[in-house]
Design goal:
This protein has 491 residues and is of the alpha+beta class. The protein contains five helices and 28 strands. A hairpin with a 4-residue loop joins strand 16 (323-328) and strand 17 (333-338).
Length: 491
């Protein structure tokens, strides 16, 4: 608008002069051509007035074009200056690469207790870079299983505090604390180093869900975000509770499942939560917004277990439908795997491309996401001679009730209703499964977790299975067992 206003002000004098000249010409013409009618004169005046207005608009448009041209020139100068000041994509990549290499050098120097980064072995840095690439691709398999010594039963520490069977566990990201859930509706926060109970979230009576701030039914699953901000529990009464892990205060309650919540897990490095339920569905929640996102359907029976890593995917087991599934959230598709003859009750991701599963038929299976059948299936995994091919009897077929994996390594573990833990070594390309050693425990192993640094294995043990009361071992203790894992000393 300023251009138009300025153009009209500047042409005011010109317009008035033209009007005076036109008036004089009209008056002279009227004297010479007296017979001309008034209508013809008005027509000429209108034409001249229209021509005058057109000239005024043209003048203003030309000024606008010139001002716009000047503005473009100035704008181009400013853009060129800003572009010269901004960092290019190539320069940014180079800067981030240098920072990443410097971080690795400092970490390796601290690890090897070297003064300064100059003393760091370059081969160690290149090895670390190769591992990072494989980890991003989901194919990393560190060879660590053979480095561990057989744990001594006397070194196993037992934490007692639950009145009924321990059903689920989760380890804090810093490996300093363990949270355990139980059939007594309580959640206990333990200190790993001392075994001290730091906090107890006590359960309430059934029917008091609206007034009691906490679980009022069996706690079936626990999960903790990788940044340590949220602790999440799933209960038999279809509710998901969100807790502050530091203060153990209730933050939020999610409702939506129509059956018991059998599994919860966080996508690593994010606030995305996956939950599985006996209503045959998987739900996704946003923890930053404390909001429901979507529901995934596909299983034909109770979803019994769930796990996730860095990718926007979730791994689930479908119980009696005999399938394990990987849900590709972005692609809105799923991969389906079959191989067990019984109910698949537990699954764990080893890396982004491989996972482990256990079944109530006593078998243990290794899988690759590119094949629908197991890469390796060990029948009667908890029999006295695992994989011997003999026909299993009722006593020999030990229900695999829990599995665990030290992520991105070749070390995995399994637990059974016979109360024993077994550690296994995954072979090259995950095509074999070799037993390492057995750790006897008294009771049903309902859950297993490795510490992120592989320094210990924690087991949730109870007198009963977490989902029922098919049997009860009276001599067993409801407890949390910490199994220390020590590496062999190099000679």
């Amino acid at each position: 608008m300023s251009f138009f206003i300025r153009g009209r002000k500047e042409n005011t004098a010109k317009s008035s002069a033209l009007q005076n000249i036109n008036k004089k010409k009209v008056s002279k013409a009227g004297i010479k051509r007296a017979p001309a009618s008034g209508g013809a004169l008005e027509t000429k005046l209108k034409r001249r007035k229209k021509h005058k207005e057109t000239n005024e608009e043209i003048l203003s448009d030309s000024e606008i074009d010139s001002d716009e041209a000047m503005g473009k020139v100035n704008g181009n100068k400013e853009d060129s200056e800003s572009e010269s000041e901004e960092e290019t994509a190539q320069e940014k990549r180079l800067r981030l690469t240098k920072e990443y290499l410097q971080q690795i050098e400092f970490e390796e120097a601290d690890k090897n207790e070297v003064d300064g980064v100059d003393g760091v072995d370059r081969d160690a840095i290149s090895h670390r870079l190769r591992e990072d690439v494989l980890e991003q691709a989901g194919k990393l398999q560190r060879k660590v299983a053979q480095d561990y010594e057989r744990p001594l039963l006397a070194d196993v520490r037992v934490f007692r505090g639950h009145k009924l069977s321990v059903t689920c566990l989760v380890i804090s990201p810093d490996n300093l604390h363990v949270f355990s859930g139980s059939k007594d509706c309580s959640i206990i926060k333990w200190e790993v180093s001392t075994g001290k109970k730091l906090f107890v979230i006590r359960g309430g009576k059934k029917g008091t869900e609206e007034t009691h701030k906490g679980p009022t039914d069996h706690v079936l699953c626990l999960a903790m975000s990788s940044d340590g901000r949220f602790l999440v529990s799933g209960c038999m009464n279809k509710l998901i509770h969100v807790w502050n892990p530091t203060t153990c205060e209730l933050v939020h309650t999610f409702k939506g499942h129509r059956g018991p919540v059998s599994g919860v897990t966080f996508r690593k490095g994010s606030s995305q939560l996956f939950s599985a339920s006996h209503d045959r569905s998987v739900k996704i929640w946003n923890m930053d917004e404390m909001a429901y996102v979507e529901t995934l359907f596909g299983h034909q029976d109770d979803v019994t277990s769930i796990d996730a890593m860095n990718r926007e995917r979730a791994l689930t087991s479908g119980g009696r439908d005999g399938s394990a599934r990987i849900w590709k959230v972005i692609e809105e598709s799923q991969l389906i795997f079959h191989g067990h003859t019984g109910s698949i009750d537990c699954v764990r991701l080893i890396n982004e491309e491989h996972f482990l599963s256990g079944s109530d038929d006593g078998s243990l299976a290794l899988w690759g996401v590119m094949k629908k059948k197991p890469l390796k299936l060990v029948k009667n995994a908890h029999a006295e001679s695992p994989g011997n091919g003999c026909q299993a009897t009722t006593d020999e077929a030990k229900w695999i009730s829990a599995v665990a994996a030290l992520q991105n390594t070749d070390l995995v573990a399994s637990g059974s209703r016979d109360g024993s833990l077994r550690l296994w070594q995954c072979g090259e390309d995950f095509k074999s499964l070799t037993p390492l050693f057995k750790i006897p425990l008294l009771g049903v192993v309902n859950d297993l977790h490795f510490a992120s640094d592989g320094s210990f294995l924690v087991a949730g043990v109870g007198q009963e299975h977490k989902l029922g009361r098919w049997w009860r071992l009276k001599e067993a203790k409801n407890c949390v067992c910490i199994v220390p894992l020590a590496k062999r000393t190099s000679r």
